[in-house]
């Protein structure tokens, strides 16, 4: 997933609220589906790519996700890392695990 990398490379195109699972994040519509955080839309892109090459029955496992706590200026603080981890945990607990229903 490119969460922090996207923000560091192109901070204007990815809003911090969207990357941090904040409820104030605007909803992004892609092909008729709505996404309210960067993780969901990134996972949907993976599923779509897999489907495009005939891999729709392959299970995708997210083995690691996180936020740097130092090293890239204002975007990498302990507070933001904690907020991301909390948002990620909450999102995973509520996740439907079918991006077509998100």
From TrEMBL:
Q: Which InterPro entries match?
A: GH, Glyco_hydro_17, Glyco_hydro_17_plant
Q: Name one GO molecular function term.
A: hydrolase activity, hydrolyzing O-glycosyl compounds
The cross-references to Pfam families, in alphabetical order and at most eight, read: Glyco_hydro_17
- The domain of life for this entry's organism is Eukaryota
Q: Which intervals of the chain form a coiled coil? A: none
Family (UniProt): Belongs to the glycosyl hydrolase 17 family.
What name has this protein been given in UniProt? Glucan endo-1,3-beta-D-glucosidase
